[in-house]
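Journal club prep, notes for RB
We'll compare a predicted complex against what the paper describes. Inputs for the manganese (II) ion case:
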Amino acid sequence: MDYLSAFPALADQLGKRGVDVRAVLEKLKKQHIETPSWGYGNSGTRFKVFTYPGAARNIHEKLADAAYVHKLMGVAPTVAIHIPWDKTDDWAALKQEAEAQGVRIGAVNPNLFQDQEYMLGSLCNPSPAVQEQAIAHMVECCEIMAATGSGILSVWLADGTNYLGQDSVVARKKRLENGLRETYKNLPAGARMLIEYKFFEPAFYTTDLPDWGTAYMMALKLGPQAQVLVDTGHHAQGTNIAMIVANLLDEGRLGGFHFNARQYADDDLIVGSTNPFELFAIYHELVSAGDKAKDVAYMIDQSHNIEPKLEAMIQSVINCQVAYAKALIVNREALTQAQAAGDVLGAHRVMTEAYETDIRPLLAKAREEMGAPTDPIAAHRANDYEKRVMKERGVAGGSLGGFPG
Ligand code: PSV
Ligand code: MN
């Protein structure tokens, strides 16, 4: 679609609404969405790992796919890695390999859920030997951060219990605190630890990091380099994620996101697909927070099972761009006035006016200025990259760095 030709008319309309279109374009060009290495490999449900033709088989192919997505989008210059899924024996070489393709290594994600020893948990495991093993893995990940230039350790634990009486809730909390503290000491200078919560799964009676409150409590105990990571899939139905985001931002403890969409829980659906209005609401809080949101890390956490992997990742980045663009064109002056006047629906309409605006011409313009294709999906479908990797890589069986392992 040729959205670019519609840009002057949209710019005119937005200008009349008091929007500084040039400033919005500059912000859109600076947007940064990180893609996950595990989103490029085969993945599946608890029932079956599906093989996708051309899916990346190792970290080198994952980097190549991420670099391809970045070339099309212009706003996805970093790749999150998962250890040990993406382990290599030469991290300096991997860093160079990424940079030669125009991308960098982003967040390092320790894997504390796939070793046999972790059956009863990792940092919170009742066995001191297993706790030590988990801490050693976290420290190893800190070393990988230093070697790759990564500034983020992204921590998610599968820890919890299934039955009343199985373990002491408070003893587990103390083990958690101790393990995180030991890890925190090993963070490279200036790096951050982002603590991710999830309200259930794989444990179902208690989860050691079930909610933002517990993650925030741990972050406060650790220090300023520890913040909360909000995975949009990790909440119960009806939770107002935008409100959690607003409050954590205001407290200076929102570290970053794992973006995806959910219908039930942690479904790994494309961010903004089932819930575009929620994503817009989240971005509205981020824009409203101004400078307090300047270090927030935006990461996609999706393992696509039935979708073409590259197109799904491109669509995910597009959906984040759309939500951000809509949040940027909210008439803030009109909003503040309506709020002060107690004009409930007037204020709400300021939001829906922005949400209902077709901002695709704005994004086309930003993309043109970045030297990226103005219609990334069309450009991807016309490109032969996917056909080429399908031929080169073929159909590899098994899970290659995604769920289930
Ligand atoms: C767990 O559900 C999670 O959200 C964590 O971030 C993991 O690291 C990731 O998914 C693995 O796919
Ligand atoms: Mn996540």
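Talking point for the session: The pocket of manganese (II) ion (ligand 2) is lined by residues 156, 196, 231, 258, 301 (CB under 6 Å).
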